[in-house]
């Protein structure tokens, strides 16, 4: 049975120790996602498996030296596997030498509980989201935001979705974290540039990635849904916003959709010019948060 930790994460005692809890010299048995699997050759010519084990707390490299071929057949990359072994330091890095490893039946565990999750407090993010929504003073635009982020079928997925699968904010809860960051930048930008339509820009910032609520699937790894693969979040978002904005005047609805559609720039849409100063602002603010976050998490390269 899953138990709730002080941070709000559910943990299954059968899964064994989390990666963050592993110590040098520790013998352990546990369940993890196999995030990488390579068959390599040692200097003496013998084969071994080089793995990466991952759970919500982090990842650790692992190696299998005995019964390599037999163990290799038992699982693939992306599977939840149960392993038995010992933690050691290899070339100064914590790693695990495994004696056994095998795939866990997907009916027992689909792996979604091992996905990385946002480390910012969820209640704090929710409070910021509500506050920023109140900064949209235009009643029609605010109703669109509220319908998408608080009342509609996308609201729950908005709080679960990542921003990307392997780039910035690539974890459960990453979408709300990124959205709050971009919308917070909007408040400062509108102070510096008071001629901007602050209601339009804030509303667009809050729902600019709403299409990502339909883009992903969740198992041992974050995947793409069929619609996400076919259409992408820009077109999914435009569709969702148009449905939620039927009560707006056509010009206001078009301004909102066009601003959102341009948040990755005009090249992606084969447009020559941005449709408005608000579209330029959203493009730059989205890129600022995404690129800084990506550099902080993955380095500059």
Overview of this protein structure:
With 301 residues, the chain is of the alpha+beta class. The chain folds into two domains: 3-113, Beta Barrel (OB fold (Dihydrolipoamide Acetyltransferase, E2P)), CATH 2.40.50.140; 115-298, Hypothetical protein af1432, CATH 1.10.3210. 40% of the residues lie in helices and 21% in strands. It contains ten helices and nine strands. Strands 3-4-5-7-6 form a five-stranded mixed barrel. Strands 1-2 form a two-stranded antiparallel ribbon. Strands 8-9 form a two-stranded antiparallel ribbon. The radius of gyration is 23 Å and the shape is elongated. The two termini are 43 Å apart. Residues 1-10 have low confidence and may be disordered.
Draw up the topology in text.
Elements: E1 3-4, E2 10-11, E3 27-41, E4 47-55, E5 58-64, H1 68-72, E6 80-90, E7 93-103, H2 122-134, H3 139-151, H4 154-160, H5 174-192, H6 198-207, E8 216-218, E9 222-224, H7 226-230, H8 232-244, H9 250-261, H10 277-298
Helix pairs in contact: 2-5, 3-4, 3-6, 5-6, 5-10, 6-9, 6-10, 8-9, 9-10
What descriptive keywords fit this protein?
301 residues, alpha+beta, OB fold (Dihydrolipoamide Acetyltransferase, E2P), Hypothetical protein af1432, 2 domains, five-stranded mixed barrel, two-stranded antiparallel ribbon, 9 strands, 40% helix, elongated, disordered N terminus
